[in-house]
Design brief:
hydrolase; single chain; 6% strand; TIM Barrel; globular; PGBDSf; 743 residues; 4 domains; eight-stranded mixed barrel; alpha/beta
């Protein structure tokens, strides 16, 4: 709702300063950051600062302090200077008088009320406006409880402001009843000041000096004074219901509960480890955990080193989006058997690039769920295993709402639609874990507490559903057993998996069962529609017609997959995807190829418009050009896996002969698809060079599947993007193939 006096404040700053401060604000009567930025710039202009900014930073504060250390009716420098104060008061919800340039009794009363709400009346008595109060006036912090804020938290906020506001680097924090990054950091400043750190040394960071000092300040029943206040403040800011004040037996009971919750020795004493867990997301980073995660293969020697170091649970990745970086990041062949043999247990993590807000969409959530299911199935994880889907970046709260939650909702919906073969966990900072859990999208959290500077960790309490708490990177073992891991504390909510299905490495695919046609069609159509690749007016064939052709040719596909010992889903996915994207434009190009080589249009192309001569085109079910068909088949001939005569891809006649077979013979076209994959894995000799992969096998990792699907289409951003979209298509085909072969 618009406020008339806020509207007047906006009109004032626009009319008086708009041309001078490099910005204007929307005159809507609603307080917002832009209005506060404009008032800050107006103040800087009045102070004679030449480089204006939205920030009320050190230059603004020092200039204001040197010129006007105490502003009141007798010292306010000008009418417009006063109008800035009056406007800011209205934007903050206080009476600013008539915005007439007069530091009136109404303005003075409001300034006094503001300082009382901030908790600084003792430090700054009276109704004058001090520089640090002015700084607090020109931001969006609230100094009264909002959104069901806690009165106990507000009491702490006011106490911190009142006690430390005159320290050089301490600035007034909100008094809204909510913990936050600024409040958490202010508590660290307070502890450092009480430890005797000078201004300039105290920095609000939980460093060696602070840790050393806290080791000398345990608190227990009977402790009173400032240290008891600081400790109970830390307890309250971590959502523990204790009185703000002395360390009583009631506080000790809550400390015991908290220590048990974060898996510390239960003593009821505020020792260093307890202080640390209250003040920083890692807690004491030297704590010994029983869980770990890492990007390195667990070999027998490393498994023994982990076991000797007391580890029980190992987090390993289902997927590695890179074929070159961190080559052992994804679970390696035989690794789960090693984990089982050494009595360890594994919890799987799913992460791709996922480093910014743009990644997190409902469509991506659905894709990731399908790919994760396929990967978990392939590695042999049993039903009910919990997969932790990662959010490995510092998402602000608005991004959690607009991006992360819809992403996890889509994961849950897709998992439910697949029959809930696996449970869903979330990996990320505290705020993300708590909010995803509260929404019901993940019941257990793997908390990335090692990222102490993340805004989603600092100022947020530990999620109630935490299973693993990642606190430090360490190295264990020696020689061949040495391994770098992230050390995790385990709560016991998830113990991972200690037994696995045999992997389907050597099981060959079998023919399709037509009883499964309807459900396969339904899944593929639903997925293609969900990514915007459903039936379109430009498509030559419906998605149902495309799948019909794949099933009609199933015996050829099955025979090829078995002969070349590759997964049938590789052939099905590439052929189905390409056939779904065969458009009228492709038909026109095909007609152009015939025109080029025969000087006449084929009967089926005589009514097409826009036909021009083309040497070659991507044609048929697999959309394979004559040139790439020759190169792919030549590669297999030279490798001794295809009995045929090599062709010359530069000879137009031979190229057209190959194109004609690919265009007119569906069996020949679909039989060429596996050779396209074999050629792609070999680095595409004769074409734009790619790195050599291992040949297609029955045990391809997910990153290898992605890379081969990408190479089929080519290189560049579109090929990479489409390959990620094709991974769930592969997962759907593979689910049915695996069921039919009995895996």
């Amino acid at each position: 709702m618009a406020d008339e006096m806020v509207l007047n404040a906006q009109k004032f700053v626009n009319q008086t300063y708009g041309s001078k401060i490099g910005m204007t604000v929307t005159e809507d009567g609603k307080t917002g950051w832009n209005t506060m930025y404009a008032l800050t710039r107006a103040l800087q202009y009045e102070l004679g600062i030449t480089t204006l900014s939205n920030s009320f930073g050190p230059t603004t504060l020092s200039t204001l302090t040197s010129k006007y250390p105490s502003i009141n009716a007798s010292s306010v420098p000008s009418a417009n200077f006063c109008r800035i104060i009056q406007s800011a008061l209205y934007c903050k919800g206080y009476d600013g008088g008539s915005i007439d340039g007069s530091y009136s009794a109404r303005v003075a009363t409001s300034v006094a009320s503001l300082k009382a709400d901030m908790g600084v009346s003792g430090a700054y008595p009276g109704s004058s406006l001090e520089p640090k109060v002015f700084k607090g006036l020109l931001n969006m912090d609230a100094y009264v409880t909002v959104n069901n804020g806690s009165t106990s938290v507000r009491e702490i906020q006011q106490w911190l402001n009142g006690r430390y506001v005159n320290r050089a680097d301490f600035y007034i924090v909100p008094c809204d009843g909510h913990n936050s990054r600024d409040v958490a950091k202010s508590l660290l400043y307070a502890i450092q000041y009480e430890l005797g750190m000078a201004d300039g040394t105290a920095n609000g960071v939980f460093g060696p000096g602070t840790q050393s000092g806290l080791r000398s300040h345990p608190v227990a029943v009977g402790t009173t004074g400032t240290w008891a206040l600081l400790f109970t403040a830390a307890m309250i800011l971590n959502d523990n219901s204790v009185p703000f004040g002395n360390f009583t037996s009631t506080v000790a009971d809550s400390v015991r509960w908290f220590q048990d919750f974060v898996k510390l020795p239960v003593t009821g004493v505020g020792d260093f480890a307890t202080w640390a867990s209250l003040l920083v997301s890692t807690g004491d980073p030297s704590r010994k955990g029983s869980a770990c995660d890492g990007v390195t293969m667990i070999t027998p020697a490393r498994a023994q080193a982990l076991k000797d170091a007391g580890y029980k649970y190992v987090g390993r990745y289902l997927y590695n989006p890179s074929t070159t970086s961190l080559p052992e990041k994804a679970i390696q062949p035989g690794e789960l058997a090693t984990i089982k043999a050494y009595g360890l247990r594994c919890f799987p993590i799913y992460q791709t690039y996922a480093r910014s807000a743009d990644y997190y969409t409902p469509e991506q959530g659905s894709i990731d769920c399908l790919v994760a299911i396929a990967a978990a199935d392939g590695f042999g994880f049993k039903d009910g295993t919990r997969i932790y889907f990662a959010v490995d970046y510092d998402a602000v709260d608005d991004e959690v709402t607009s991006r992360v939650l819809p992403y996890f909702q889509a994961i849950r919906n897709r998992m439910n639609a697949q029959g809930s073969p696996y449970q869903i966990g979330v990996y990320g900072p505290r705020n993300i874990c708590s909010r995803v859990g509260a929404a019901g999208y993940a019941l257990v959290s793997f908390v990335s507490d090692m990222s102490t500077g993340f805004s989603g960790n600092l100022g947020y309490s530990m999620p109630s559903n935490w299973a693993f708490d990642q606190i430090a990177t360490v190295s264990v073992g020696s020689g061949s057993g040495q391994i770098e891991i992230d050390n995790n504390i385990a709560s016991g909510l998830d113990t991972g998996q200690g037994d696995f299905h045999p992997t389907p490495d050597q099981t060959l695919d079998v023919g399709f069962n037509l009883d499964l046609w309807s459900s396969l069609l339904q899944e593929l159509e639903a997925y293609m529609n969900s990514i915007g690749r459903g039936n379109t007016s430009t498509s030559m064939y419906t998605r149902e017609e495309c799948l019909e052709q794949i099933i009609v040719l199933d015996s050829v596909i099955t025979s090829s997959a078995r002969r070349y010992r590759m997964r049938k889903a590789l052939i099905q996915t590439s052929a189905y995807w390409e056939f779904c994207h065969y458009t009228y434009k492709d038909l026109v190009e095909d007609a152009g190829v015939v025109l080029y080589h025969t000087a006449a249009l084929p009967d089926w192309g005589k009514d097409l418009s826009g036909v021009t001569r083309l040497v070659d085109s991507s044609t048929g079910i697999g959309k394979i050009s004559g040139r790439t068909g020759i190169l792919a088949r030549n590669n297999s001939i030279s490798a001794g896996i295809l009995d045929d005569y090599p062709q010359d891809a530069t000879d137009e006649a031979q190229r057209f002969a190959m194109w004609t077979r690919l265009n007119q013979d569906n069996i020949f076209n679909i039989s060429t698809v596996p050779h396209m994959h074999i050629w792609g894995a070999a680095g595409k000799p004769g074409d734009v060079a790619e790195t050599v992969m291992r040949p297609p096998t029955l045990a391809y990792r997910q990153d290898e599947i992605y890379e081969l699907l990408r190479r089929y289409q080519g290189s560049g951003g579109q090929a990479e993007s489409d390959a990620h979209l094709r991974e769930p298509v592969y997962a759907i085909f593979e689910k049915y193939n695996a069921a039919l072969r009995g895996d």
